[in-house]
Amino acid sequence: MAALLEADKLEAFYGPSKVLHGIDFALPEGGVTAILGANGAGKTTTLRALCGMIRTGGTVRFDGKRIDGRATESIVRLGIAHVPEGRGTFAKMTVDENLRLGSFTRRKKAEIEADFEHMFAMFPRLAERRHQQAGTLSGGEQQMLAIARALMLRPRLMLLDEPSFGLAPLIVQDIFAILARINREDRVSMLVVEQNTALALELADYAYVLETGRVVMSGPADEIASDESVRRSYLGY
Amino acid sequence: MELVLQQVLSGLATGGIYASVALAVVMIYQAIEHFNFAQGEMAMFSTYVAWSLIQIGMPYWVAFGLTLVISFIGGVLIERIVLRPLHRAPILSQIIAFIALFVIFNSVAGWIFTYTIKPFPSPFPEEPIFGTFISTHQVGVIGVTLVMLGILFVFFNFSRIGLAMRAAAQNPESSRLVGIPVGWMTALGWGLASAIGAVAGMMVAPIVFLEPNMMVGILLYGFAGALLGGVTSPTGAVVGGFLVGVIENLVGTFVPFIGTELKLTVALVIIVGVLTIKPSGLFGRPVVTRV
Ligand SMILES: Nc1ncnc2c1ncn2[C@@H]1O[C@H](COP(=O)(O)OP(=O)(O)O)[C@@H](O)[C@H]1O
Ligand SMILES: [Mg+2]
User: Fold this and answer.
1) Could you tell me the residue ranges of all domains in chain B?
2) For A108, left (φ over 0), alpha (ψ -120 to 50), or beta?
3) Do the beta carbons of residue A67 and residue A52 sit within 8 Å?
4) What is the ipTM score, two decimals?
């Protein structure tokens, strides 16, 4: 399968300190890839590096074209939607306005309106709260809004940073079921960062394990999930 | 009682001018979290542009429209050329840039147009159409202000770019993640603020006469209005501006020792009062310093 996104010796820096030490990975078109690892391993930093939100080294190719060093907004325009850590909703704006902002790069009114309906069908809770400020939503609803806003870009690739963080197990189940559906039905490729390893390995086809800014192992998700020694040494469960 | 009503009405007219200046100040404050001290001088310069266009024979409203366009472009250019290169620089460098802009506009205006005061035309008739209570120009100022505020309200709430500008001011990082070019939104904000200031300048010039220091006092009132309403709230800034206009007039009329000479003190009292009693203003949220 041709890689949709390819990172080669990717490095990332916060000021002078290097936190990613040259990692390599490839995301297949249409697939779900997981990045796992303990707190502080560099998972969030990896996603931020792909979107040009911090200083990087190495190369990143999307669809065969170099995107490293480009401005975030121009990377986003290629169809890469990032659902950031902490969700990044516009707290003082309504649900409706958040979704409208998600469609900022698009111009075809009819298609955008159709996508609004699509989102409200997928997330009925958001439809009920359409005119409410995003800051007043519950954690689960905010995560749904963040995902829906990312989808309004009509992305080819979605980067998800700990979509389960801080949510009740039942809501997490819902959200992961929806992500699986989006991947299957809308053919959106995904890169999911998670500390909830079991859940992520269920959704993903392939996984990379990070430790202090390095890839320490990778493989098909089901193999990693069934390899007890890997789980013990790297994933802690 | 009639005197009170009259003072309130004419307070609303000057208040409209303060409201415009306050709005311009708040728009830039929201984008960059600093006050643009040169806002008034930019408005004064815009008014000279309008004056020059009228001098060469342009009809008033054509000159008015063209001045808005020129001011808008000028505001965008100032952001791109002067402020953008400084946007990661320490606060002090930015403040120095504002002061430099202030001095440059002031002295260039003095150099080109001299410091002698010039009459500036009002687009509204001189006959008192609305009775002896309030001059036609004052009613016109209130009208122009309200129309401008209406247009801005529609722009910020119902247009794609207006929404993106609000988003960029609220949450720059998330804005980039939906593809908004945040830097350009700031530049557009400067353009709009500059055009709003131009309206204020053209409306106040027939009253105070045109000269390079015309906007210094007005800017102080604009700041007072912005602070009173809350520097984080555009609506608050507008309400604050109108309130300051009314307060200024009532105090000037009814507090005997203040009169017209000490009126400027009113602005200072409001500024100091708000900062000590309720720094977030009437409509603002508390300002939390980002760490
Ligand atoms: N803004 C920052 N400034 C400096 N160092 C940071 C910053 N954010 C994260 N780091 C450091 O980078 C490393 C990786 O962090 P992060 O990518 O957030 O980890 P993860 O998402 O896997 O928990 C950590 O050592 C963390 O301390
Ligand atoms: Mg993280």
Assistant:
1) 2-9+19-214
2) beta
3) yes
4) 0.94
User: What is the distance in A from the centroid of ligand 1 to the CA of A81?
Assistant: 21
Q: Residues B6-64: pLDDT tens digits?
A: 888 889 989 999 999 999 998 888 877 788 889 999 999 999 999 999 999 999 999 99
Angle, CA of B8, B10 and B12, to the nearest 5°? 70
Among the partner-chain residues B160, B164, B177, the one whose CB lies closest to the CB of A84 is B177
From ligand 1's centre to the CA of A210, what distance in Å?
A: 13
Domains parsed from chain A with CATH numbers: 3-89+155-235 (3.40.50.300)
Nearest to B177 among A76, A91, A93 (CB): A76
CA distance A185 to A21: 36
Cα separation of A106 and A100, whole Å? 10
Q: Which of the residues B159, B178, B180 would you substitute to probe the A interface, choosing the one with the greatest number of A C-beta atoms within 10 Å? A: B178
Amino acid identity for residue B127 in this structure: E
Here the tokens at position A8 are 């080669």
Cα separation, B124 vs A217, in Å, equals 77
Place of tokens 């709430």: B157
State if residue A23 touches ligand 1 by the CB under 6 angstroms criterion.
Answer: no
Residue A64 has which token pair?
């065969």
Centre a 10 Å sphere on the Cβ of residue B12 and count the other Cβ atoms it contains.
21
Measured between CA atoms, the residue of chain A closest to residue B170 is: A90
Report residue B54 as tokens. Answer: 């009228």
Q: Residue B290: its pLDDT value, please?
A: 43
Q: What is the DSSP letter of A77?
A: T
**Ligand 1: which of A18, A20, A45, A161 to mutate, judged by most atoms within 8 Å of the beta carbon?**
A45
Cα A19 from Cα B7, distance rounded (Å): 65
